Amino acid sequence: MQHQVFTPASLLSAGSPTGQRKAARIVPFFESPARIAVAGTAKVAVIGTFTPRKCGIATFTADLTEQLAIWNPEVATDVFALDHAGSPHCYENVAAVIDCDSPACYSRTARQINEGGYDAVWLQHEFGIFGGPDGEMVCDFIDRVAAPLIITFHTVLAEPSPNQERIVRRLLARASRVMVMSRHGRDLLASRYGAENSRIEVIPHGAPDRPFGREEQFKQPLSLEGRNVIMTFGLLGPGKGLEHMIEALPAILERHPGTVYRIVGATHPNLVARDGEAYREGLAALAERLGVSANVMWDNRFLDTEELLDQLEACDIYVTPYLGMQQATSGTLSYAVALGKAVVSTPYVHARELLDGGVGILVEPNSVSSIARAVNALLDDREHLNATKRRAYRAGRETIWPRFAAASAELVSRSVAKPVSDLPITAIPGMTGVFAMCDGTGMMQHSIGVIPDRRHGYCLDDNARALILMNVSESVSPAERLQWSSTFASFIQYAWNPDRGAFRNFMRYDRTWCEETGSEDSYGRALWALGHTVANAPDSDMRDWAQHWFDITSAPFAVIDSPRALSFAMLGASCVLSAQGFHKDAFATLERGGTLLAHLLASARRPDWTWFEAVLAYDNPRMPQALIEAGMVLGRSDWTAIGLETLDWINARQTADQGHFRPVGSEGFGQPYEQMPFDQQPLEAQAAIEAAVSAFKASGDRRWIDRAVTAYRWYFGANDRGVVLANITTGRCRDGVTPRGANANCGAESILGFQLAHAAVTGLLRSAKPLNTDTTAGSMNGMTVGSTAERQRQSFANT
């Protein structure tokens, strides 16, 4: 099988629906319902079956991309076509072909999309077009995709199997926006699957715009002038109920002998593979037995769109006697209505909605006599027939392609993220959000919205971070700094368990401990906070206290060799050595940690993998940062070089093609990076910023300023969902970026991550030397990094 793969440039030259990038985008403001639209272009990856494959979704995907290119070219589309390995189809004008039964191919495609700078991914869903039971391979695929996800549900089942329901709920949990083509589908998603109505949009199936009343003109090439023509089109199969229309023909021909029934369309390929042409042959035999075979005309082909429209124009009455009442979409029904055909149909979902208000005639399902009566009523009364046609044509004006394309473009606009155009780096965050999470015991862990959730109590991790914040915050008075530093320091002090020679981590709200020994990470973070306080606390008594407790707690840490816990402790030990000149246990921590990290890198390194472990996890930049700081303190240039190299590598993997920061999401911890881009957490941006500060200090390379500012912009909407997480006024920060937007909670970890990130980036900009006026260091939405850094430096110099 040959699949022709086109680059975006070749797609343009081939006249396919693609174009430039960056779309009209919308970003929700923090704690405000306001939205801001910015004009531009969007690049969208469309996933679905595609022509020349013969199925309704393939036709829909082709129509969607073609009509957007014609009517809304600001939305550029690349098609990723689903098919089976060994398919005979030769695809043109597609970005790639996905082997729908191959997990590895889904993984490669997700990575291609993530690295392709797409502003949104638009997935066409039907259970049968993806691999695995009920097409469940789609779940792993969407978990890997970072861009906002739009899903069109072509089928919404009222009574799904447990696995089908699981798949639909998984898709809904990932989708930024959902499209259905009927109100019934929207209501069913909400009532049966728990979807939010605010994320579901009803966009009726699009249809062509052709002149009204040209039946005789198009009957002539078919030699049907002057005859009544009834028609059904589509892939043939038992669910279409065509036998009922054939059985109704004797009663129709008795009153209107010249009438013909045209059955246009090939038998469904899956049915042919299983049963051959048994269904079609059975219909033909039925017509022969009833004596109407001369009035049944067959066109056993899957027609291209233009020929199909020509044949539709030749008919007077379009019939869909379908047996199943749950069909939510029929593209040919939409076409027939838009062309002004009198429609007789059973009341399946799409027909009930589209034919409402006299647009067409609904008949009882499985009722031959109902079909015959409805058709005869139209043919008996030409005025009635023509009035029904005109009502259909008027209704069809609401679904013609320009309207469909405009609605689709608006759906994309509401889904894609908007880049920030301004960044409040000089504004100092308030502390209201910090202190709202605190009491006399310390800082509470979690919140529901902006309200502390006392059920989860406190943890050492957050109180250690809070103590570091008190060392550097510019938003507190000396009295507030001393008060809260003492509170957080007291928590750390009480967390030490001398009987175990370790820190405890989690404390209940009633001040009882949940454990006797906490995590190795919390131990490392406590040492980091103590070391940071030794070097940075404004109050000398606080520095002495921190030195005392670092002396007590650092020696027992020698039994811990977790890479991240060691990295946290190394950052604290570097502070102690920088402040004190020498400290035996601090020196030992750096020696042991630097040696271990260098060994891990040597063992795990591959040509395309410059990292300490075989997978990525949380706080990744802390390991390079620890090596950089240890190298500077101990004069180990080899460690500094390793730290810079690995930080450069992880930074590249945490930068989206569009240039914004895209951290490893918590769902991806311990997984291959391209697999799970969500949930993205504020601590990851903080780690990237503070590591960039260390890298700049070690190298003087101004690109690290760019990287720090890029990561800081993540808090203000430069992220995969365009959501603003941080509030400068209160100092709060949302708990992260999810597939559907921002996590509304504002826990201690997120608030402290943002506050410390701000302190780090502003400290970096203060320390940066002025650039020459003819020097730039990369552009950020119209502002060069160098010029931004210089403006920030000058601003702080004048403060």
From TrEMBL:
Q: Where is this region: Disordered?
A: 772-799
Indicate what this protein is called per its UniProt record.
Answer: Glycosyltransferase family 4 protein
Q: Which InterPro entries match?
A: 6-hairpin_glycosidase_sf (IPR008928), Glyco_trans_1 (IPR001296), Glyco_trans_4-like_N (IPR028098)
Q: Which Pfam families match?
A: Glyco_transf_4, Glycos_transf_1
Judging by the UniProt lineage, the source's domain of life is Bacteria
- Tell me which positions the record assigns to the signal sequence: none
Domain named Glycosyltransferase subfamily 4-like N-terminal: which ranges? 102-206
Per UniProt, residues of the Glycosyl transferase family domain are 214-394
UniProt xrefs under PANTHER family: BLL5144 PROTEIN (PTHR12526:SF572), GLYCOSYLTRANSFERASE (PTHR12526)
